[in-house]
Amino acid sequence: MTLAILADLGGTNTRVALAEGTAVREGSIRRFSNAEYKAAGKDIGHILRDYLDQTGESVSAVCVAAAGPVQDGVAVMTNLDWTMDAAKLGRATGARQVAILNDLQAQGHALGHIAPEKLRVVIDGPKRADGPMLVVGLGTGVNAAPVHGSGAARVVPPSECGHVNMPVRTEDDLALMRFVEALLRQRGEVAHCGVEEVLAGRGLGNLYAFAAHRAGQSGKMDSARVMAALEAGDALAERAAALYVHILAQTLADLALIHLPYGGIYLIGGMSRALTPYFDRFGLTTGFREERRVDLLQTAFSVTVVEDDFAALTGCAAYLAATA
Known about the structure:
Largest sheet: 6 strands, mixed
Number of helices: 13
Structural class: alpha/beta
CATH architecture of the largest domain: 3-Layer(aba) Sandwich
Radius of gyration: 20 Å
Number of domains: 2
Oligomer: single chain
Shape: globular
Strand content: 15-25%
Order of helices and strands: EEEEHHEEEEHEHEEEHHHHHEHHHEH
Number of strands: 14
Mean pLDDT: 95
C-alpha cells in the first residue's frame, strides 16, 4: 500500500502525518511551528523534509492542505510569505504523486472517512447517502464549499463565501451591521460587514462589543475571553452567543437553499465546536427551519459538527487514495 506524507498548513502550526490508503497512521501526527521555520528562512518544504528525516520514512505521495487560496496548483500563504507548488513538494519529499488543496477542500474530501463518534448532529433531518454535501468552516475565518460525488469523482470547488453580506432580517441585525461597519472603519479596515466579521473568532468579539454598546456599556474582549465569560454566565456574553447562533442559523439556511445539500451540512473549525453546547439553548434549529416561501428548510437537510481536529489530514489521505 502507498505510504503518503500529509500536511495541514495553518496560520500558526503545520501538522504532519503519514497515511496508508485513506487511513492516517496512528501516532504519526506531529506539529511544527511555522514562526520558527519562517524566522530561520525556511518553509513548508523544510518542514516535510525534517519530518521524513526524523521518522526515517520514504514516501511515494504527498498532499498539503493550505489555509489559503490555491490557484493553478500553487498555494500562497501571504501571512507567512510562503509559496508552494508541486515541484517544491516533490523535491522536499521525493514523492511522485503530489497534491495541494485548500484546507476547506481537504475537509470536504474527508467526509465519509470520519469516525462516527467524531460526528455530532445538531440539527436532525433526512440525509441522502448519494446527495451533495456542504462543509462550512467556522474558525479564524469563515468559508463554505459544496461537496459533490465520491472517490475519484468527488469535486469540492473553492469558495470565498465568508465575505458575502451578513444576513439582515431584523432591526437589531441592521443595527449590528452598522455597528461592525463603524468598528472596521475606526480600525482603518474595509467597512464591509461580511459573515466572517460576526461568525469567525474575531466575530464573537464584535458581537460582544455590540451587546455591550446596546446595554450602554463599553466592552472589548477576544473570543477566548467571551467564551470564558459565557461559561461563567455573563449576561453580555450570553447575548453575544445568542446573536452568533441567530446569524449562523440564517447563514446556514441561505447556503442550504443555494446548494441543496441533501447529504448533509457539516460544520468544522474551533468556533463551531466551542458554540455547540449553546446551539439548542439559543435556537439554532428554530432559526434554521424558519418558514419561507418554499418548504425545503422545514422538510430537508441536517447539520452535523465535525469533532475531529485532524479531519483535514484524513481528507488529504482520501484525496491521494482516490486520485492515485
